[in-house]
C-alpha cells in the first residue's frame, strides 16, 4: 500500500474482473503511499498502527478498539465496510445469515462467528480474503500471519481423493532436488499422509524402486538451517539426504 499509485479499491475491482472471484476485504488501509501507517481490522473492529519512528523494523505496533458511536466520516466508512463484509459473508454462511435475519447489529455479531465464516469460505474456495500491508516497511505482517493460521486449511481440512488408495500408508511427493556441497543431493518432500521416518525404507511408485532413509538424513529446513528430525508428519515438508534414484514429482 505504500507504493506510488497504490489503490486498494482498484485492487479489489481488478481481482473481481480479472480473476473472476469474489474478493472479501477484511482490512481497510489507513493512509496511502508514503502516508500509509496501518489498517482497520473489519473483523475485530480495531485499528493497528505502525510507528516507524519508534520501531523501524515493524515488529511492534499499537492496537486500539474503534469507537463507532460517533458520527465522524471515518466511523461511517468503517460502518459501511463492515456492513458490506457481513453482507458478503451472509451469502455463503448460514450462521451469519441467521444473525442478519434476526436483525442483529453488524457490530454486535461475534468476531468468532465471522472468523469461522471466513475460514469455511476460504477452505471451500468460494471467495478470497484480501488484506493490506507493506512488505518494504513491514506493515501488516503480523495480521497476515495471524490470518494464515486462522483462515487457511490444515492438512485434515483438505480431502485429496487419491489418498483413499493409500489407506494408512505413507504418501509423499518430491518437488525439488538441490545439491549441497557438504550433504550432497537433498530431496524436498511434501508429506500428504502417514509419517516419513528416518531409518525406514520408502517405495518410489514412479520408478518402482525402494530406498532407505539414513537415520541422520531426515531434516526440516528453515532458511539455511537444517534441523535433524526423526519423523515428519502429514502436511509438513521434509528434506531427505542420500536418495539416489528419486526425481522431482515422484510419489
Automatic annotation (TrEMBL):
GO terms for cellular component: mitochondrion. One of its GO terms (biological process) is ribosome disassembly. Keywords: GTP-binding, Nucleotide-binding, Protein biosynthesis. Residues 171-246 form the Elongation factor G-like domain. Pfam families: EF-G_D2. The keyword Protein biosynthesis applies. InterPro entries: EF-G-like_DII, P-loop_NTPase, Transl_B-barrel_sf. The keyword Ribosomal protein does not apply. This is Elongation factor G-like domain-containing protein. It comes from Dreissena polymorpha (Zebra mussel).
